[in-house]
Write a structure and sequence with these properties.
This protein is α/β, with parallel strands linked by helices. It has eleven helices and nine strands. The strands form three sheets. The chain has a four-stranded parallel beta sheet with strand order 4-3-5-8, sandwiched between helices. The longest helix has about 30 residues, at about 5-40. The chain starts with 6 loop residues before the first helix and ends with a strand.
Length: about 290
């Protein structure tokens, strides 16, 4: 006859289990801290401002040799000689506030088991995307992906073409008086709106699971790749006062940006096709942060 556990044994077993889990969690946090200490930190605006130099055709570009950037000044682990996928975009694609290796192009590359080279940078728009395609095609990609962010890309296309003399050929020469950069008021409208945000934070009792380093460590293992859990906090930040003026299709300058964007996307598609590669525009949702 099996002996039933008494209350003392049950309590002792429970305490032992809690102590073991506590030790495992502590070790996991120590291990996670060691790993994170070796990784480049998320790029913030202050970091970006320190790593930018002027460029006649791009407006600005990253300085070569900075931590977190490759030998060409792009945000990749190494400056690849070839890549199956080349991705071009702005800060959303570059990985603004994302940890190194967690930018969506790199996540995509791991998901489809293909090499990815990211040519994006904060502040870029469609005109810069077309310029960077020349560099991207040198890597002989199978696919070229452009992360198009409607939240500012149309307006960026207008400002880049009408500010930089190198891109004068992209301007609508029949409407110089109406579209002159000196008459642009959108920039003034959005200057004081970037911090006006509406935040939604859904409550979910299951969110606590992502707070444990032990769970995150297990989740990071290859054999556990299909096990998903919701992170401990979800924020959706919408800065409508900042974004909507740059998406107003009744504004002549935004409409000019749309025209320029359509023209350069077609040009990029044609150039990519000539080297037998596929061209895909990825529409980035107009949300500032989803964490």
């Amino acid at each position: 006859m099996k002996k039933r556990l008494g209350w003392a044994e049950v309590v002792l077993l429970g305490v032992s289990l809690l102590v073991s889990l506590g030790i495992a969690e502590t070790v996991s946090r120590m291990w996670e801290s060691r790993i994170n200490a070796r990784l480049p930190k998320p790029f913030t605006q202050a970091v970006i401002d320190r790593m930018i130099s002027k460029d006649d055709r791009l407006g600005h570009r990253s300085d070569v040799g900075l931590a977190g950037l490759d030998a060409r000044g792009h945000r990749n682990a190494t400056a690849l000689d070839s890549a199956e996928i080349v991705v071009i975009g702005d800060s959303m694609t570059w990985g603004y506030n994302a940890e190194f290796g967690k930018e969506w192009p790199q996540v995509l590359g791991r998901a489809v088991s293909k090499s990815v080279y990211n040519l994006s940078l904060a502040g870029y728009g469609p005109v810069q995307y077309a310029e960077l395609l020349k560099e991207g095609l040198k890597l002989k990609p199978q696919w070229v992906l452009v992360g198009l962010y409607a939240g500012n890309d149309y307006y960026d296309a207008y400002r880049t073409a009408w500010q930089l003399a190198a891109h004068e050929d992209k301007r609508d020469g029949s409407r110089v008086a109406e579209l002159n950069i000196d008459g642009d008021t959108i920039h003034e409208q959005i200057a004081d709106k970037s911090n006006e945000a509406v935040t939604f934070r859904p409550r979910n009792p299951s969110l606590w699971i992502g707070r444990f380093a032990l769970i995150r460590l297990i989740k990071s293992q290859p054999w556990c790749a299909t096990w998903e859990f919701i992170p401990d906090r979800i924020d959706t930040v919408l800065t409508s006062g900042y974004r909507l003026p740059m998406m107003d299709l009744d504004n002549l300058r935004v409409k000019e940006g749309v025209r320029i964007t359509q023209a350069v996307m077609k040009m990029m598609r044609d150039q990519t096709g000539r080297v037998q590669a596929r061209f895909l525009v990825v529409l980035i949702p107009t949300k500032e942060k989803v964490l």
